[in-house]
Specification:
- The protein starts with a strand and ends with a helix.
- It is about 50% helix and about 15% strand.
- By secondary structure, it is of the alpha/beta class.
- The longest helix has 21 residues.
- Strand 10 and strand 11 form a beta hairpin.
- The chain is globular.
- The protein has two domains: about 170 residues, Rossmann fold (3-Layer(aba) Sandwich); about 190 residues, Dehydroquinate synthase-like - alpha domain (Dehydroquinate synthase-like, alpha domain, Up-down Bundle).
- Helix 3 crosses helix 4 and helix 9 crosses helix 12.
- The strands form three sheets. It has a seven-stranded mixed beta sheet, sandwiched between helices. A two-stranded antiparallel ribbon has the order 7-8.
- The structure holds nicotinamide-adenine-dinucleotide and zinc ion.
- Nicotinamide-adenine-dinucleotide binds next to helix 2, helix 4, helix 5 and helix 6.
- Pathway: Metabolic intermediate biosynthesis; chorismate biosynthesis; chorismate from D-erythrose 4-phosphate and phosphoenolpyruvate: step 2/7.
- One of its GO terms (molecular function) is 3-dehydroquinate synthase activity.
- Keywords: Amino-acid biosynthesis, Aromatic amino acid biosynthesis, Cobalt, Cytoplasm, Lyase, Metal-binding, NAD, Nucleotide-binding, Zinc.
């Protein structure tokens, strides 16, 4: 698959790609030293394979361990990673390889964007969420005390390696979480893919190789196409935020990852975006029910989990309005005319949003 960055780059989707990393990095980036950034868990699982493969291609790997999960995406995490890169004497002809989930990819991508005004980054995502969504598109970020992903840069990778085999060690909850973003691609622009997922979602979650490959490839193609049209999110790319304004509010109320993972929040958010679309007469109620059924089927949440029942609808609304995707306090949401037909809707009435939030368990 070819994707558009500052220049086009290849996204490889397949099995055993981490063992081929050396040759692929060599031909895409031609770096000499490669800082392989991963968390302790992913490093223990896959670090050696990447290391061996880079060495076999004549490259010098420099393994670097960062914090696990969202905790990695902090000012401190960025500072210490940049410090290690400086101490290891990496120069502009070298590269960073992000080996891990979306958190590692976001942090390492931002460090690469900043290091000596930018060095090559290779994304080697090891979660379904990162393979299907975050590794392609060039968005990198860390969190600030004021909110998630507020400090970042667009920094496109030179190469993306989605090794489907790496997903074998991912736990089921993380698999489901990534599946929410896969489903999102069907919901926002590809009805046939949504219908395929209705029939084959369980096989994807069971990591059946062919089903998994189709799900990741279709998601990557959809993302690459949207990003190519709108690299800096001036228009159509906003559709990728389907389910994210609702989802982000729930995710924040749940302390980011403590109650709901990002994907779980996105799944709930997609259900609510369709419920609101139906309530506003944009799409019919059957479509919204169908989305809800597809989400429920996979074990992803369609209502707030017990720990978030009774959360204030006002608090959620405030978060939705304050979301960085909102413009001037008005509520701008990604809604849908039907499955596969998402669009940006401005000036959405907060009352209708409140009703949907209450239906979902808020008070
Ligand atoms: P994550 O990166 O936090 O990883 C979750 C956990 O999975 C970690 O504990 C990690 O050690 C473990 N793990 C990763 N790969 C594994 C494997 N193959 N086997 C076993 N364990 C493995 O989670 P995530 O869901 O991948 O990423 C979430 C982050 O992605 C969020 O910070 C979100 O903001 C970001 N994101 C970014 C974009 C973007 O466009 N840049 C898009 C969506 C999400
Ligand atoms: Zn997301």
């Amino acid at each position: 698959i070819s994707a558009e960055g500052v220049r086009p780059y290849d996204v490889h989707v397949g099995r055993g790609l981490l063992d081929e990393a050396g040759g692929l990095v060599m031909s895409a980036a031609g770096a000499r030293r490669v800082a392989v950034v991963s968390d302790a868990q992913v490093g223990a699982l896959y670090g050696q394979r990447v290391d061996d493969s880079l060495r076999a291609a004549g490259l010098t790997p420099i393994p670097i361990t960062v914090a696990e999960g969202e905790a990695a995406k902090s000012f401190e995490g960025l500072q210490s990673l940049l410090g290690v890169l400086l101490d290891s004497g990496l120069d502009r002809g070298d590269a960073v390889l992000a080996l891990g989930g979306g958190s590692t990819g976001d942090l390492a991508g931002l460090a690469a964007a900043l290091y000596m005004r930018g060095i090559d980054v290779i994304q080697a995502p090891t979660t379904l969420l990162a393979q299907a969504d975050s590794a392609v598109g060039g968005k990198t970020a860390i969190d600030a005390p004021q909110g998630k992903n507020l400090i970042g840069a667009f920094w496109h990778p030179r190469l993306v390696l989605c090794d489907l085999e790496a997903l074998d060690t991912l736990d089921d909850r993380q698999m489901r979480s990534g599946y929410a973003e896969v489903l999102k691609y069907g919901l926002l622009g590809d009805r046939a893919f949504f219908e395929w997922l209705e029939a084959n979602g369980a096989a994807v979650l069971d990591r059946e190789p062919e089903h998994l490959a189709h799900a990741v490839e279709t998601s990557v193609r959809a993302k690459a196409a949207i990003v190519a049209e709108d690299p800096r999110e001036a228009g159509r790319r906003a559709l990728l935020n389907l389910g994210h304004t609702f989802g982000h509010a729930w995710e924040a109320e749940g302390g980011f990852g403590e109650v709901l993972t990002h994907g779980e929040a996105v799944a709930l958010g997609c259900v609510q975006a369709f419920q609101l679309s139906a309530r506003l007469g944009l799409c019919n109620a059957e479509e919204a029910h169908r989305v809800e059924a597809a989400v429920r089927e996979t074990g992803l949440p369609v209502r707030a989990p017990a720990a978030l029942r009774g959360v204030s609808a006002d608090a959620l609304l405030a978060r939705m309005a304050g979301d960085k995707k909102a413009e001037g306090g008005r509520l701008t949401l990604i809604l849908a005319r039907g499955i596969g037909r998402a669009e940006v809707v401005r000036d959405v009435a907060p009352e209708a949003v409140r009703e949907v939030l209450i239906e979902g368990g808020a008070a």
